[in-house]
Structures are given as C-alpha cells and as structure tokens.
Write a structure and sequence with these properties.
The chain is α+β, with helices and mostly antiparallel strands and 353 residues long. It contains twelve helices and 16 strands. The longest helix has 21 residues, at 234-254.
C-alpha cells in the first residue's frame, strides 16, 4: 500500500478519577519517519478491510434533514467540524490548530453523550490511489510490554489499531470537486452500538445519506429474482451472479460506487437481462449509484444459516447437484460431506479403518 503522508498528529483524550474528560495536546505534527508511515499504512489497511461502512456528507442549517425542525421554529446549530475543516483547507488555519480544535470538540461530544471512551485522537492528511484524504480516528489503547535498551521489560500503552471502531475518512479530493456528493465521507459501522455511532457522526457534523447494506441487499434480491423469473439455465444464472459479485467486489475494494448502468453493460455482454430494467418494471427501488457492502454480497454466492445447534453453509451452485432441498419436508440432503466432517462422523460412529 502506497501512502504519501502530508501531516499527522495524535492527541490524548483521558478521563480523570471523577469521570471528567481532559485533553493532552501534542504541540506539533508527527515526523514522517518509517514508524509513523507504518502506523498510518496499517490503520488505512485495517480501515479498508472493515466490511461494513456507512457513507455520509456534511450537514448545513438548511439541510433537508432539518425540515421538520425548521417548520417547528426550532433553533438549528451550525456544525463546528465542517467550519474548522473549511478554515484549514482555505489556508486560514494550520493543521496543528485544526487538530487541537477538533480534539476540544471531541472532548465536548464525549461529555455530552456520556460515552465511556478514552483513547487517542489521530488526524492524518495523506494521499492514496490518487485521492487526498483526511482520516479522523479515535484509537483505543491496550496494555503491552516494551523491551528497553538495557533489555529490561516495562509495561507500555500501545495503540490498538486492529480494534479501531470509531473512525471516518473524508475524501478531500471529492469534497472540493463536488461538495454536493453524498458519499465523500465514509465511516466505520461496527459493534460500537447506535449511541456511539450517532455520537461520532454528530462530532463530525455529518449525516448518513445512503445505507450501503440495505442497497446491496436489495441488489442481491433483485438479481436473484431476475435470474429466477428469466428462466435462465443454471450455468448462465451462476455466471450472472458471479459477474455481479465480481463487479461489486471490485468497487468495494477500490472504494468506488456500484453504478447500475456500468453493471448492466457488463452483464449485457453475457446476454443477461438488465437489472435496472427488471427493477423498474417491478417497481423495485434500487439506487442508480451506491457503495457496496461486502458482507451482503456473499448472499449472491452462498447459502448459510444457523440455529438450534446447527450451522450450514454451501455455495449456491451446488443446489440441484450435491445439495438437494425438499420444501415439503424442510429437509436438506448433502451428497459427499466435507473430508474433515466425514472423518469426525466416522470416528464418532467407530467406523475408522
């Protein structure tokens, strides 16, 4: 992974014994030495690999999401983070000052939401794959050990990059080129809980504009219905599923958007019906463009489920050959069990040679 780091900085957000939040500021940016570049490359790799992300853009006081509040005469505060970002991008605020103001803002949000978190706020301005990004991450800490020059071992706090849950990446190239775009901010959606997720979006002054998971699931359902209703041969149906899976996976890997027109063009080369046309004919709401959700894509290629002490997963292409399903009796028959499962079963029944 090739990152060109322009500037990065870390500030500590801590809690005192009474539970109050404080900030320990760094007075200067980090040196772009190998250790820092390695840290940011690892963080970027972890971020890119997270399968579930949300996509957002900054909100303004005249944003449609505040329509009801405006009708009710409610006061709508202008988000602070976008103003700070604009000042930095316009050159009126140095990067260090931006980061310190953002740290103060995070401290306020943590106090307001009563989110029991302490850690390190990291801001990084860098370029990757031709685009410029600002990464904002709230990194957890883990206890570790460090070997000193005299070979003694001491306890040391370490950034737990692999377990980052609160992070967002702003595509500055896209923001400056097209501020009306709805996807120039991506953020992690994981196990932090709804409250923590809302707190981080409010901290950044943005709102989720498109649900990547719901859109991808709707695409999967539409493709499955299309290949079924078109009465395609099993082999051609599988080829269509594979092509959709490959295309969406490529877009997810590159951080791009699933474009229905582009996808239809790729499928047309295989003689496939149009997904967009099929959706329109049946009144299915499917966005023309949306980010892919990796975890939802698997439903195109595999059946899987668990419950009642049973966990089953197999590739869809095996239906009708090695795997048979009888809806009347709700029974699955598998011909040819996996070798490791077969060995376990034979040992259990005392059938080993």
């Amino acid at each position: 992974m090739n990152l060109t780091v322009t500037a990065s900085i870390v500030h500590e957000i801590y809690q005192d014994p009474d539970g109050n939040y404080g900030v320990r500021f760094s007075p200067a940016t980090l040196q772009n030495d190998p250790e820092v570049v390695t840290l940011l490359a690892e963080l970027s790799q972890v971020y890119n690999a997270k399968p579930t992300k949300g996509y957002a853009s900054f909100v303004t006081i005249d944003d449609p999401i505040y329509a009801e509040a405006r009708e009710n005469g409610e006061s709508i505060p202008e988000p602070e983070f976008p103003k700070l970002l604009t000042g930095w991008l316009q050159g009126t605020m140095p990067f260090v000052e931006l980061s310190q103001q953002v740290a103060r803002l995070l401290q306020q949000q943590l106090t307001q939401y009563a989110v029991a978190e302490a850690g390190f706020l990291l801001l990084a301005d860098y370029e990757e794959s031709g685009d410029r990004f600002l990464l904002v991450g709230f990194l957890p800490v883990r206890d570790g050990v460090m070997v000193q020059p005299d070979l003694s071992v001491h306890k040391a706090a370490q950034l737990d990059v692999a377990k980052v849950q609160l992070a967002a990446r702003i595509n500055l190239t896209e923001l400056q080129a097209n501020a009306d775009d709805l996807y120039y901010i991506s953020f992690l959606k994981g196990r932090t809980g709804r409250k923590a997720g809302e707190f981080f979006l409010d901290f950044l002054g943005c709102a989720e504009r498109v649900n990547a998971k719901a859109s991808t699931q709707q695409l999967v359902k539409t493709v499955q219905a299309m290949v079924t209703n078109s009465e395609l041969e099993p082999e051609q149906a599988q080829q269509i599923r594979q092509e959709v899976y490959d295309y969406c996976g490529e877009q997810w890997q590159q951080g791009g958007q699933v474009e229905l027109n582009s996808l239809d063009q790729r499928l047309a080369d295989q003689g496939s019906p149009s997904i967009k046309g099929f959706a329109n004919d049946r009144g299915v709401e499917l966005p023309d463009s949306f980010p892919a959700d990796k975890s939802s894509l698997r439903q195109l290629m595999k059946f899987q489920g668990q419950g009642g002490g049973v966990s089953v997963a197999f590739e869809q292409k095996l239906i009708g050959s090695r795997v048979q399903y009888d809806p009347a009796t709700d029974t699955i028959t598998i011909v040819g069990t996996p070798p490791n499962l077969r060995d376990q079963l034979r040992r259990f029944y005392g059938l080993n040679d």
